[in-house]
Each structure stands twice: as C-alpha cells, then as structure tokens.
C-alpha cells in the first residue's frame, strides 16, 4: 500500500493537535526534519516516512476510539410539550430548567422542536410549522 503524501503531514498533525516535537520524538526523527518536510524542503527515506505515518495513523485511531458518541452524552430525561400546549405553558416548562428548546409531541410521537428563538421571532407561530 503506498504511503500518503508528505504534504499531508502538517494537516494531519494539526488535526491531532500534536507538536512537531512530539511527532519527531515518536517517529524517531528530528523536529527540524519534520519542519523541513512540512515546508516542502526535505526528502526522506521510505523507512522514516513510514514511521511518521504509522504514528499519525495510530494516534488517529486512538483519538477515534476515545471520542464519545451522541448516545453516551445525550440527555435522556426529556422535557416535552404537547402539540397544542400554549406558548405560556411552553415557557413555564422551559424556565425552571433553563432550557431554550423543547421537543413537541403528538400522540406519543415527536413532531417538532420549539425554541426560545422561534417563539421570539414568530408572531403567528402556526405559519412557522
């Protein structure tokens, strides 16, 4: 399998938020070499390029595994309003919990979302549906 382009090293390193020093240390090359590669002023051996890309790939995989999913961080104690609740009732449910949006349900099914911004920007709320 061919190696990625050397020009991609800087972008991949920046996405991972690692320094040239860290990458150089992990790939067993100098920071000056990383800098020269990123600036297009240095060619390197296949072995050194492979070490650099192996480390970047390992870090990318590690970072992907440690990222949380939406399901892990979502709120499960949902506050919802009925389709025909008045705006005053909606505000009463929002205010105590400091919420800015609520799910709108009808017959046990989610049918929409109402937000403070929608309420503030719409004089005739039926038109915004």
TrEMBL record:
Q: Which domain of life is it from?
A: Archaea
- Boundaries of every HTH cro/C1-type domain copy: 9-64
Q: Which GO terms describe its molecular function?
A: DNA binding
What is any Pfam family matched here? Answer: CBS
Q: Which InterPro entries match?
A: CBS_dom, CBS_dom_sf, Cro/C1-type_HTH, Lambda_DNA-bd_dom_sf
**Spans through the membrane:** none
Protein name in UniProt: Transcriptional regulator
Report the source organism.
uncultured marine thaumarchaeote KM3_95_D02
Q: What is the lineage of its organism?
A: Archaea, Nitrososphaerota, environmental samples
């Amino acid at each position: 399998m061919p190696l990625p382009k050397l020009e991609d090293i800087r972008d991949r390193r920046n996405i991972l938020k690692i320094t040239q020093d860290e990458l150089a240390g992990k790939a067993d090359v100098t920071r000056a070499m990383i800098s020269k590669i990123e600036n297009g002023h240095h060619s390197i051996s296949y072995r050194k390029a492979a070490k650099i890309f192996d480390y970047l790939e390992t870090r990318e995989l590690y970072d992907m595994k440690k990222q949380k999913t939406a399901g892990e961080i979502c709120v499960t104690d949902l506050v919802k309003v009925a389709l025909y609740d008045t705006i005053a009732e909606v505000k009463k449910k929002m205010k105590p919990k400091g919420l800015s949006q609520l799910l709108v349900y009808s017959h046990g099914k989610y049918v929409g979302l109402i937000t403070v911004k929608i309420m503030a920007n719409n004089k005739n709320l039926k038109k915004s549906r």
